[in-house]
Specification:
It holds the Pfam family Alpha-E. The protein is an alpha+beta fold. The chain folds into 4 domains: 243 residues, 3-Layer(aba) Sandwich (Rossmann fold), CATH 3.40.50.11290; 66 residues, Dna Ligase, domain 1 (2-Layer Sandwich), CATH 3.30.1490; 155 residues, no CATH class; 147 residues, no CATH class. It is built from 32 helices and 23 strands. The strands form 7 sheets. Strands 4, 5, 16, 17, 18, 19 and 20 form a 7-stranded antiparallel β-sheet that branches. A 4-stranded parallel β-sheet has the order 7-6-11-12, covered by helices on one side. Strands 8-9-10 form a 3-stranded antiparallel β-sheet.
Length: 849
């Protein structure tokens, strides 16, 4: 349902009391299904009356406007996710109501989560240590040794830092008795804390008054404690903490980037890491730098192809050795995914009594592992009333939480019985009951009403120096349909912020704590892969600008004037040169199209890799790998630029085809403004650290190359006045030229201004001077005082352009300099970027639930 459109149908003259009554009128939970808002006696319960009473102060138009601003913020900042196996990004589907829980109830729930987290830690210590649980018959040996998540090389290793788990999560819901129960344990690499953070930032931004008035518990203290726990495990006092991702094609990459940015962690892929002398290092532009702590967001068997899965291209050969010698803290430790086995729930109560001396405060549905003969017999006899799920995480063809309910089992009873007879140990059965529900909006003729919707809540506990700490909130998934369970993010499933309401004001907490670390001014260490992406981000943005400027010149607009020979005569020499260059750059499909058709293709073609749209999409792809380094404003400009240039997506195809030249000119000029905004953000908002050097290096090198190309085409020895006017326009130098020369365009003055003038920010000389400064500021590996090859290239070019005369820069000379600039770009890549057999990786389509 489109909430914003539905909310605007509310009654403008309706009073607060009438509005509240209409919202809850007819609210009816499903029989036997616990609901967050309404109890079995039909009375409102929990924190919902308090929340709705405050929400009722806003009419539906105001609620719609605020939620529309939240949706715009999600779009502008690129908060998104991927469905497993789908390369497309989907806008994050934030629900229009939070899940609201009373503070006292949350305290009781948190105690159960902490107990369960401690139990999981103890089980892992035993499974990979003395194995007493198996010896005592409390845990079947087949469940351990037969699990694909049991990492044999980890047996006998004591986890560096003293913990197997740094982050524990539990998916919970209410059972038929109304009590919270655990539906699944998440110990592998729990996803969701970053999405919970993004939900809070977005919804708190849209409803700051409700957030403050209702005393919603804040999340910052949890993340601070989690980060402190990672730091405490390391040997060095100032450790380097990395978040290991499988890359931009991970279904949760946006979340991982958000967490890295928020916590100040280094986001790395396997390509960025290397083992040396038994220690894990990050490949940076400054050389290898030690990594002390690794927050793992890839599956266990992928972390080390040397000792675990030999086909892995995501991890680092030899990483397990770093765990053996204690030089690396990993959270969560490889092998911890064994606790996600659905069969473990059948044995947890007995294990808890043995290890903790008490009963579980948070239980789960009654469970039977079919590998046990007695349990299998029970499952066969009661199959129609049970739900069946795989013991271990399937690798292909089935969702992580694939469940066959009684209805599905009934329709395929013979096949299910055959599977149980063939490999019973692969399955676990549980009591079947629907998920509990929470209120969601539904549209009616009279406006909005509340209706019950199924939900699943993921709660997180972090290992901190002071013990386990539970996030006061969580990651909630809500289904828009009553008959679809939200076991994973996909179409029809939304996410909701989780508000824990305190009965007293909540003290503001921030990661920026007084009395923190000592003051220091260092540029930080930039991974080589990130430097590569930043460099090409700058180059692609500059390429898009060059195509746009060439298109504007093609439409006949040079400076503030219209050059008739270019705009009116498509056969004029200058017009032909523009068309030929666009064709050479693969920005158009043919040089003899009509003026409007040529401009449309150059600006907005998806099929041609040289169009402005294609270059902006390439820049956006690079930016996708840099989410933790780019500001929300930069992402917003990139999004606006893509939407502006993507005519086929932005409006119907026929309207795009009918756009007149004047409309296309206006579009191109607006696109230039967006690119100027990107340049301004880089120039004014980016710290002058190594990353900024590479962004600007990419732009300067590409601009110098493009200007040489323009000069070969429009400032040759036989250049006409129209050619020279276009040359000045492409270099945005009309005003400067007019202020300096009063007698019209001439070849040598134009060449001097666009090629050799050190004061013109568009000249080649200016770019080379900036390049040499950047290279001088970048780290050097040699200490003998001799410039490295890439610096020698730059200094040679700087000498040629600082001492040259305009007349010497004919077509042949410019072609040589263009090739020299390309060689300089290659030399920079060879020095600073990933090279060799590990430079190219396959697409990393790895998702975690």
């Amino acid at each position: 349902m489109n909430f914003v459109a539905a909310a605007r149908t509310g009654r403008p003259s309706e009073g607060r009391a009438e509005r509240l009554a209409r919202w809850s009128e007819g609210y009816q939970p499903q029989p036997g299904v616990p609901d967050e808002f309404m109890g079995s006696d039909g009375r409102a319960r929990g924190a919902w009356p308090r929340f709705l009473d405050r929400l009722g102060d806003l009419d539906e138009a105001e609620i719609a406007a605020r939620f529309a601003s939240a949706e715009r913020h999600i779009r502008d900042t690129g908060i998104s996710y991927r469905i497993y196996g789908d390369q497309r990004e989907h806008a994050w589907p934030l629900g229009s109501l939070p899940l609201v829980i009373d503070g006292e109830e949350w305290e009781r729930l948190s105690a159960g989560i902490i107990q369960r987290a401690g139990l999981m830690e103890a089980i892992l210590g035993d499974v990979y240590g003395p194995s007493e649980l198996v010896a005592r018959g409390l845990l079947p040996a087949g469940l351990v040794a037969g699990s694909p998540e049991f990492m044999r090389p980890l047996h006998g290793i004591r986890p560096p830092g003293g913990r197997w788990l740094r982050l524990y999560a539990a998916d919970i819901g209410r059972g038929p008795d109304g009590r919270w129960r655990v539906l699944a344990d998440r110990t592998q690499a729990p996803s969701g804390p970053g999405f919970a953070l993004e939900n809070r930032l977005v919804l708190g931004r849209a409803f700051p008054d409700l957030y403050a008035d209702l005393h919603v518990e804040r999340l910052a203290a949890f993340f601070q404690a989690f980060r402190d726990g990672l730091i405490a495990g390391a040997r060095r006092s100032d450790p380097r903490i990395c978040l290991l991702t499988s890359g931009p094609f991970s279904s949760t990459y946006v979340e991982q980037a958000a967490l890295a940015r928020y916590l100040g962690l280094l986001l790395v892929e396997g390509d960025d890491l290397v083992m040396q002398d038994g220690v894990l290092h990050v490949r940076t532009v400054s050389g290898l730098k030690r990594a002390d702590v690794l927050w793992r967001r890839i599956d266990s068997d992928f972390v080390d192809p040397l000792e675990l899965n030999p086909t892995s291209r995501l991890g680092v050969p030899g990483m397990i050795e770093a765990l053996r010698n204690g030089s690396l803290v990993v959270g969560n430790m490889p092998g911890s995914g064994i606790l996600e086995s659905g069969a473990l729930a059948a044995y947890l109560p007995g294990i808890a009594r043995h290890l903790l001396g008490s009963e579980l405060e948070l239980g789960g549905p009654k469970t039977w592992w079919c590998g046990d003969p007695d349990s299998l017999a029970h499952v066969r006899d009661h199959l129609d009333g049970l739900a069946l799920r795989p013991v271990a995480t399937p690798r292909k063809g089935m969702a992580r939480d694939a469940i066959m309910g009684p209805q599905t089992i009934g329709a395929e009873r013979d096949r299910v019985l055959a599977a149980l007879g063939d490999r019973p140990f692969d399955y676990v059965a549980q009591e079947s009951s629907p998920l509990s529900t929470t209120p969601g909006w539904d549209r009616t003729e009279d406006g909005l009403r509340l209706v019950p919707r199924p939900f699943a809540l993921r709660v997180f506990a972090a290992a901190t120096p002071d013990g386990w700490r539970v996030m006061p909130g969580g990651f909630c998934r809500i289904s828009e349909r009553p008959d679809v369970e939200p076991v994973e993010m996909r179409a029809g499933i939304k996410s909701a912020d989780v508000w824990i309401l305190s009965d007293r004001p909540v003290e503001p907490v921030s990661l920026l704590q007084p009395g923190g670390p000592r003051v220091r001014r260092i540029a930080g260490h930039l991974p080589s892969r990130a430097a590569d992406n930043l460099f090409w981000f700058g180059r692609y943005v500059e390429r898009a600008e060059a195509v746009i400027r060439l298109t504007i010149a093609h439409l006949g607009h040079v400076g503030d004037a219209v050059v008739a020979d270019v705009a009116g005569d498509t056969k004029a020499p200058t017009a032909l040169r523009i068309r030929a260059l666009l064709d050479k750059w693969h920005a158009v499909s043919a040089p003899d199209l009509s003026t409007a058709a040529l401009a449309r293709e150059a600006l907005s073609s998806r099929a041609l890799y040289g169009s402005a749209l294609s270059h902006s999409l390439a820049a956006r792809n690079n930016a996708t790998s840099l989410r933790e380094r780019l500001s929300g404003e930069a992402w917003r400009v990139l999004t606006d630029l893509r939407e502006l240039l993507d005519l086929d997506e932005g409006q119907n195809g026929s309207a795009a085809q009918e756009m007149a030249e004047a409309q296309l000119l206006g579009l191109a000029e607006r696109a230039l403004s967006h690119i100027a905004a990107l340049s301004g953000l880089a120039g004014e908002n980016m710290n002058r650290t190594v990353g900024w050097h590479f962004v600007d290096l990419g732009r300067r090198i590409e601009r110098a190359i493009n200007t040489c190309t323009f000069a070969v085409t429009f400032a040759g020895d036989a250049a006409s006045a129209e050619d020279l006017a276009v040359m000045l326009s492409l270099c945005d130098s009309h005003i400067s030229y007019g202020a300096r020369y009063l007698h019209g365009v001439a070849l040598d003055p134009v060449r001097d201004m666009v090629l050799l003038d050190p004061y013109n920010p568009r000249s080649v000389a200016f770019q080379i001077e900036a390049i040499t400064r950047h290279l001088a500021d970048l780290p050097a590996l040699r200490v003998d005082g001799i410039p490295e090859p890439h610096r020698r290239h730059a200094l040679q070019l700087a000498s040629a352009f600082s001492t040259g005369e305009p007349a010497a820069f004919d077509g042949a000379a410019l072609a040589r300099f263009e090739n020299a600039l390309e060689s300089l770009a290659d030399a920079i890549a060879g020095r600073y970027f990933p090279n060799g057999p590990h430079a190219l990786r396959p697409e990393k389509l790895v998702g975690l639930a």
